[in-house]
Structures are given as C-alpha cells and as structure tokens.
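Dear colleagues,

As part of the handover before I leave the project, I'm documenting each prediction I ran so the next person doesn't have to rerun anything. This entry is a single chain, and its sequence is reproduced below.
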Amino acid sequence: MDPKLLIWDWNGTIIDDTDLCIEIENELLRERGMREITKEWYLTHFTFPVRAYYVQMGYTFETESFASVSSIFMERYRKRFMSCPLRKGVMDVLEAAKERGIPQTLLSVTRQDDLVEQAQTFGVNGLFSEILGQDDSLCVSKIDRAKAYMRRLGIDPKEALFIGDTDHDVEAANAVGCRCMLLADGHQSKDVLLRCGVPVYDSAEALGKDLFH
C-alpha cells in the first residue's frame, strides 16, 4: 500500500547532525572533568528519553539539573546547527514525495520554534504541510504529539508512514498504528535499529527506491 502521508523525523533523519551533537556532548563532558564518548558509543547508547542517555554518560544531576545541562547543549546547538549538511539523498526523497502529491509532516522532539527555524534555514519548510515540535527542549518523547496529530487528521493510521533514525520513531509509529522505515547511523547504529522489526536502510537513496518502487 502506497502511503497517503509521510511523517518525517528531523535530527539524524533529514539533518545530518550526529557529529555536531557528539562534539557538543564532549565539550560538556570535558568541562565537567568527565570521560568523553566516541561515536561508536553514542550510536549504541543514545536513547529516549534523552535524560536516560545522559545518565549513561555519567551525569548524576546532583549538582546541576538535567534541564540546565540540556539548556546549555541547546544554546550551543542553535549557534552551530547550520554547519551541518542535510543527510545525503534525503532531499531527493522529499521532492519525489511532493511530486507524487503525498503530504509530508515534520515531527520532532525539537522545540517548536527551533524546529521551524531549522527547517527554514535549510529551505525544506515548504515541503511539509505541518511542522510539529515540542513545548520544551528536554527531548522526552514525540508519542503524545503524534497521537494528537493523527486524531486531528482523522486518517487511517495504516495509510501513514513514519521515517526516522531511532527506535523511538518505531515506538511513536506503533503508538499510533503507522508503519515505519528507519535510516541507519543517524543517531543510532544499524545493529540497534535491526532489533526493532521494521525495514532499516543504509541510505536515503535505498529507502526512496523501496518507498517509490
């Protein structure tokens, strides 16, 4: 069944920002005298809610809150996100969907105003019928936002398809009854994603070929 709606994740799926996130994380860890992380560790341990991943890095939040650390991270990210590229091949998939008349929505754990600004900066905002972010920068979950959106839209969830790069995208898709496709090595490794039981692709090109075959 061809999808009648594509719901896209942002970070790691459309914008290739994994290296920037690791760079900022290691800055924060160095400043606190904590052990830095490798990209391999990151792709294996990154998870939602993001607070749990910070605990795995060694944060106890006894002397500073998660909200405070998250705020510092986002302040630095906002200043540098424009240095990131779009994920290779993803624009071709976005434009192919538009040519086929398939509505597309951007759904992210990123704060709403940041998400809109980032999509505009990369010139992709016009490809989406809606851009749906969160009320804060704590990156807890997109499930409630997804449920509310699908209820408002009133379409059969089976006619929609989530495209993301983490197991949380699968959780969101399952929560609303949508199908899901994943791109590997965004913010989680292929090995992590293969445990999710949905199609996993090494590239946006490969995903697009399967989606529009």
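The longest strand covers residues 104-111. Residues 132 and 149 are 9 Å apart (CA to CA).

All the best with the project,
I.
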